[in-house]
Structure formats: structure tokens, C-alpha cells
Amino acid sequence: MALIVQKFGGSSVRDDERIFNVARIITETRKKGNDVVAVVSAQGDTTDDLEAAAARINPNASKREMDMLLSAGEQMSAALLAMAIESLGYPVVSLLGWQVGVKTDSNYRNARIKSISSERINAELARKNIVIVAGFQGINKYDDISTLGRGGSDTSAVALAAALRADKCQIYTDVDGVYTADPRIVKGAKKLEEITYDEMLELATLGAQVLQNRSVEMGKKYGIPIEVLSSLEDKPGTIVKEVVKVEKMLIRGVARDNDVSRLSIIGIKDTPGMAFKIFSALARKRVNVDIILQSVGRDGTKDITFTVPKSQSKDAIEVLHEMLPSLNAMNVICDDHVSKVSIVGAGMETHPGVASKMFEALYEADINIQMISTSEIKISVLIDMDDADKAVQVVHDAFIK
Amino acid sequence: MALIVQKFGGSSVRDDERIFNVARIITETRKKGNDVVAVVSAQGDTTDDLEAAAARINPNASKREMDMLLSAGEQMSAALLAMAIESLGYPVVSLLGWQVGVKTDSNYRNARIKSISSERINAELARKNIVIVAGFQGINKYDDISTLGRGGSDTSAVALAAALRADKCQIYTDVDGVYTADPRIVKGAKKLEEITYDEMLELATLGAQVLQNRSVEMGKKYGIPIEVLSSLEDKPGTIVKEVVKVEKMLIRGVARDNDVSRLSIIGIKDTPGMAFKIFSALARKRVNVDIILQSVGRDGTKDITFTVPKSQSKDAIEVLHEMLPSLNAMNVICDDHVSKVSIVGAGMETHPGVASKMFEALYEADINIQMISTSEIKISVLIDMDDADKAVQVVHDAFIK
Fold first, then answer.
1. How many A/B residue pairs have CB atoms within 8 Å?
2. Which of A87, A199, A255, A310 has a 20 to 30 Å separation from B71 between CA atoms?
3. Cβ–Cβ of B83/A65 closer than 8 Å?
């Protein structure tokens, strides 16, 4: 008998029919002799609806009260799922973050799990109950409700799997696994059987949006294999783990990220310490800077270009405008019409020629590269947003047959 | 500086505008230098909507999971109300049953409060926060969420007022106080300045539906004066307390209750123990019997007639039909088309002639009395439902000028 943690996202429980579908997946797992702990997100658009209700009342509501409001979404879906399981004749109990003892820091709306107590869940499992846990929520040291950020239920599930020493953590979603590229956009995109935590992290960061990053980090930290699979089709998904079998495939996936703005500061005086000044000021404003490019100095000035998430470009521009005089710089330019296209694969660091193969594919498609960034397991390029779909397709074609 | 507990029902917070109206009542109270703890119900139809959602999934859902589901309603309204108060510029914090330490028994959906810990609320008040408490909910000894039954937020409020030794408990609702009769039906109905706990209990039981009974019982037990007043008009309401000033008014109110069925068992063998047999069987089925009438024995048989709530008449008839042979009885007759009309007043026990005055009024209006029941502070009659409105009016006219 194994202990399996299963997670079901909002679209998997969006209506009565889907709730019963999930109830059947859980009870089938149970019928095979397993203990099951199921983590559930809020139904369909509930979280969006609650956010809209809050915005009508007070667009600047405190994050503490937002978490009090939003966490009700998972409470409702957990109770309804438990009721569906009851109606199938299985003993079940739903539990909230505070009942499970999911302790987090006090960073409301984006809290991190610090610890989980296994006591209550183990007691319920000993009573032969299926356990439904409201995802996305925990409590901080003040006994106040905190939420884990968008996709936080993934992290709830992996953290529970670690705390309970579960044999498996299955993340059910509306896609049937991790693909080499978004199958809605790229012809020939292939489902991966396996992928490493590091590759998955790069893909998630790059906009693949399959798993919340923290859940993958936690899986890596505690060595919990995470299976991503469909709640609508009964077939194997993709397993995220530490080491995967060697495949011919050189790269694991091609990702596109449109949530990016390119900022340039033009005509900075070419003296030491300018980059430090700029990026420490942005860090103080909590702006996440990604790719950075610095031009070679010329006429005593240089330009610095970098990318930030679209949502932070306004903040960044504000900071930079204030700094212009102290930088002796001329201007700040912002371009929102860009995309980042990346290839990810743990194998590429030992295979020379991956980058040039990517650039060649883009060149042949007549796509101009604005910026380049590389790490051990990924290569990213910044291009015009209009070229992004084509870029993903030609790069995918070049690497994945 | 006083500590005031205020309670706002579902209709008082049913939309954004009403939420801000309540936020203003609370902050006005605060501005006068008072500490405020506000108990809030779920918005408008939220509880009904959640019950309907549950019924679609599983009409026989466990009461534990129902409470898990329903308690989310008060959580959402508490958070939204706190956000509205934040936007008015006041420090505020919303708290749930478990955070406040509202401990109840394990009778899900109809739990009774056993204790409330004042620690967290007092700490928040010391920090100068307005405290919003989600009504209707508590937790039992298993740390599971329980709810207090319809109107349970009234009881939450009075229990909190007792635990915090509040100076005042105000129940805001959509009527502006307790009337001598339902003002929508009875011409000349008057708002009462004051009423005793006992009178209020009789009126609530009799269908006046202003306060949950348990909240009045708790107010009586701990000596908490309860003020019933309108959230829509700024004027004094009705104060429920132990002793009220003597008024000319002999009776405090006339109430009508349509939620009543009359059952008769005909031709019971006239031997001892028959009534015991019948009513102990009904008690085992948890049927609430109200007025009982036993005919004088004749031809060796007698009839027993009694009233029950309409919702329990089916259960009662089932029990009685099973018993017919052992009672040697002939038949069970049920009449759902009846109403109970009652007058209530602590003064009546020392004033002879109250009953006859009531009967005279009914006689002059040509209304037939089917059954009569009396206690120290009330007289009830059962009549045809078609006569009920007229009966309330003529009895009211006879006593209240």
C-alpha cells in the first residue's frame, strides 16, 4: 500500500461534473489499496471572482484581508469534493490549512511554507479516511491565514508529500504532461516522459506555466518525484525527478514568454559603479531583472539594456527616471512588444553547437535577435513579439524530430 | 469609552453599497470613542446558494462537510467588510471562529457555543483595531468547523458580548425594532422601547423571527442587554433586557405562526399510559410537540390532538400510523391549514381577564378557536389559517391602543 498525494487544479473542479470526475480518480486510487491525500484548488474562476469583489470594495485592500477572502475559495471546493466522495460511498474528511498545520511566513499573498505538521492527516488516514486538503493556504505565526501565490496549490501538494513522506505526488491538470513546446502553438510538440527538476524550473520560469516554481524547488529539495498528468484522460503523464534516462533528445523544450518588457538607459556616463547603482536601486523596488546587456563604451558613454516582467516596467521606469541626473544619462526607452524564446535541456552543456543551431534556425526564418542570455541548461533570445510563434516553431523543428 | 458588540445580518451586507453602509455605522461608533467588535453574517443569499450547490453534489452530504462549506460564507463577508473599513481609513482585522476561539459542541449545523476565549480579540482591541468576527461559526473539540444554525450570528454576537463583558450588544437588522405585531400585516402595530428576555423568547418561538432564541437565552443568562435596531435608519431600536419599565400596555405583542400542523389520533382506547406511549415515541423521533389537547373519554375511547412544526408532520404521521394497532386507535388526521395566534406579556399573569378579552375579540370577529394553550406570559390559540391576519388585527386592536 502506498501513500499518494494528488493535486487538482481549478479547471479540474470547475463544475459539478468535473468534481465527480475528480472524486472518481481519487476513489479509484483508493480502491487499489492506496492511502490518498488530495489537494484541491478553488473552482474555476472563483479566485478571480473574489479578487474582483475585493477590487470593487477596496482596490488597495490589505494583503492580510485578501488572503482571508481568497482562502474561502479552496474551503468551498474542498468541502464540495468531500461531499462528492461521500456520495460514492467512501469515508472522507476535508481539512483547511490551519487544521493541517501548514505554517508559512507572513508574506501575505505570496507566503512560503515553513513547516507542515503531519499529525492530523496521519490520524485521519489511520481512521481510513480519504483526506481532502484545501490548497493554496496556510497560517502564519499570528494564526492569520496566508496564501501561497498563483499556482500555490502545487506547492501545497509537494510540501504535503514531503511532510507525509508520500510515495508519489501527482499534479492533475488540464494538460496531459509537459511538452517540448506549447502544443496549441507548435506543430510536432512531443510529450516528455521525464524531465529533471532543473529543466522544469527553467521551463516554468520561461512561461511554460505547468507547475508553480516553488513546488519544483521543493520537489528537488526533498527528492519527491512529481507526476504531471491529465484529470480528463487516463494515461501516464510526465515525471519530474532528479535524474532522467538519457534520451537522444538534446533539448527538453522550447518555451515562449510574452510577459517581458525591454528597458534601455541611453548615454550613461562611462564610469565604474553605474550598473551597481542602477540594479541596486531596482532591487530595492523589488523589480526582477532578467537578461542584462551592456554596450561597449563609446564617446565616453554606454547604454544598459535589460528585461523585466511587464507588470514591473512602470515601477522600473519610475526608478530610472529619478536616477537619470545622477547617472548623467540621456533617456530611458521601454519596449513592451517583445518575447523571450528559450530552449532548455540538461544535455546541452556537454554538446557544443546548440546555440549556433538555434541562431541558425532563427536566421533562416529571418528573425532578428535583440538580446541573448545563456545558462548551463538554457539559451534565451529576446525577439519581436510578432515573430514569437514562428520562432518557437522553427527552433522546435531544428531540435526535436 | 465603552466596548460595543454589533451584529449585522445577511441583508445588511447583501451588496457593496450595504457593506459600506455597515462600515460607516461601525466607524461612526468608533469615532465616538468606543471599541467595536462587529459580528457579520454571510452576504444576502450566499448561504442559500452554498446549500443549493451542496444539494446538487450530494443531497445527503454529512453535516460536518456542510459546515465546512457554509462557514466560508461568513469568512468572505467578514473579509469584505474589513476591506471597506480599511478604505474609510480605520485599522481593522477580521477573525474567524477558530481564531476567536469560539468552542462549540459537535452538533454540526446546529451547534451550541460552550466557551469563547477573549484573548485574541482583546489583543486586537489593545492594538486599536476594529474587530470583525465571522458569525455563525465555531470549532468543536476535534478542531472541526461547526455552525450555529439559522440566525446563529445573533448568538455569536451575544456570546461574544458576554465573553468580552461588553457594555452593549446591538443587533442590526432590516427592521427597526420589535413591534407589538408584524407591521406589514397589522395596522397600528407599535414599536416597543423595551421588552423582557422572557417575552422576547415567547415572541421568537411564536414566529416573530427577530432574534435567534438562543441569543435571547444567552442574553438572559449573562445579563447582556440586547438592542434590536435598523442598519438603514439612524434611530433607537428595541432593548431586550431583564426588567422593563412598567407601561400601560398589558401585552407586549401579538404574533402569528403559520409553521404549524394539527394532528389528531381518533378513537384511542381509554386506558392509562396512552399519552405517554404517543409522546415518548414522537420524542424519540425528535418531533417537537407544542399544544396538546385530550378529549374527555366517551364510549371507552378518547381523541388526542396536538400541533407540530409543518416540517415534522410527515415524520409524526409515520410514527403514529405504526402505533395505531398498539393504541387500538382508529385513525390519524392531519390539518396543515392552521395558524397559531398568540399574545405575549409579562404583565398578564397579574391581570385577570386577559384571556377572556382575547377570546371576546375573536368571537366578535366570528373566528372559531380550535385549541387553546396558556403559560404565565402568553396565551395561544389555534385557528383556521384563513382567519389568521384578521385575528392578529382584532386581538391587537383589543389590547394595544
1. 108
2. A87
3. yes
| 8 Å CB contact of A76 and B71 | no
**Residue A366: is it exposed, middle or buried by C-beta count within 10 angstroms (0-12/13-18/19+)?**
exposed
Most confident range, picked from A270-274, B207-211, B311-315, B327-331: B311-315
Please answer whether residues A213 and A158 qualify as being in contact, where contact means their C-beta atoms are separated by less than 8 angstroms.
no
Chain B residues near residue A66 by CB distance under 8 angstroms: 79
SS3 A176: coil
Would you call B100 an interface residue with chain A, using a CB distance cutoff of 8 Å? no
In A16-75, the residues whose Cβ lies within 8 Å of chain B are: 16, 19-20, 50, 53-54, 56-58, 60-62, 64-66, 68-69, 71-72, 75
Assess A144–B contact: CB distance below 8 Å, yes or no.
Answer: yes
Do the Cβ atoms of A82 and B76 come within 8 Å? no
Whether B98 has its CB under 8 Å from any CB of chain A: the answer is yes
- Interface residue A120 vs chain B (CB under 8 A): yes
Residue A94's DSSP bridge partners are A132
Quick check: A383 and A362 in contact, CB under 8 A?
yes
Which residues of B fall within a CB distance of 8 Å from A19? 57
What phi and psi, each to the nearest 5 degrees, are found at residue A99? -75, -30
| Residue A171 grid cell | 499534479
Q: Which of A56, A60, A69 sits opposite B79 (nearest CB)?
A: A69
Read off the C-alpha cell for A133: 486538503
User: Mean pLDDT of successive 10-residue segments in chain A (401 residues)?
Assistant: 95 96 98 97 95 97 98 98 98 98 96 95 97 98 95 95 96 91 89 92 80 92 95 93 73 91 90 86 87 80 90 91 87 94 84 86 93 88 95 93 77
For residue B242, with 0-12 CB atoms within 10 Å meaning exposed, 13-18 middle and 19 or more buried, which class applies? Answer: exposed
Query: Are B151 and B41 within 8 A, CB to CB?
Result: no
What is residue A311's DSSP assignment?
Answer: G
pTM of the entire structure? 0.86
ipTM: 0.85
A-chain residues near B120 (CB < 8 A) = 143
Question: How many angstroms separate the CA atoms of B77 and B135, rounded?
Answer: 10
pLDDT (0 to 100) of residue A287: 87
